[in-house]
Amino acid sequence: MNEERNNGALPRSEDSQEYLTFTLGDEEYGIDILKVQEIRGYDAVTKIANSPTFIKGVINMRGVIVPIIDMRLKFNLGQVEYDAFTVVIILNIAGRVLGIVVDGVSDVIALSREQVRPAPEFGAVLDTDYIDGLATLDERMIIMVDIERLMTSSEMGLVEQSQLTA
C-alpha cells in the first residue's frame, strides 16, 4: 500500500529515495535511510584517549563496539547540552557500525532526484565534499549529506581505506 505523506514528500516510487531527516541546531539534514540501522537515545559513552574531539567515545551495543561521533562538533556548530531529545543514529557504513549524535530526528521523507538541488560552490571557505545537495520541502530547507562519503573519509579515520577498495 503506497500511502500519500502529509509532509509534502512524494510517495515512494521508482525515481525517489527515502531519507531520514535530523536536526542540528536550527538546521535540518537528511541522510540515506538505507544506511540507518537503528535510532536510540543518547547514553553515556566510554571516552578514548587521544581521539579527535568530534569522536565522543564508544559504546558496547550487543557485543559490538560502536564509535560515537558528535555531528555538532564535526560540523563546527558548537557544544550542545544533551537532553531527552538527543539521539544516536546507528549507521552501517562500509561494513562498519558507528553512531552519530544529533539534536533530534525529524522524520522519513521520500524525495525525487529533481527535488534535490546541487549544493552551491563556496571554494576553499567551506568544505562541501559531503553535501549531496539541498532539498526544499514545503517551507523546509534540508541539507542532504552523503553520510557514507563523510564517515569513510580519511580525516574521520573510522574505516580503513583498504576496506573501501576491496
From TrEMBL:
Residues 16-156 form the CheW-like domain. Keywords: Cytoplasm. The lineage of its organism: Bacteria, Pseudomonadati, Pseudomonadota, Gammaproteobacteria, Chromatiales. It is found in: Cytoplasm. PROSITE patterns: CHEW (PS50851). This is Chemotaxis protein CheW. Pfam families: CheW. The keyword Cytoplasm applies. SMART domains: CheW. GO terms for cellular component: cytosol. One of its GO terms (biological process) is signal transduction.
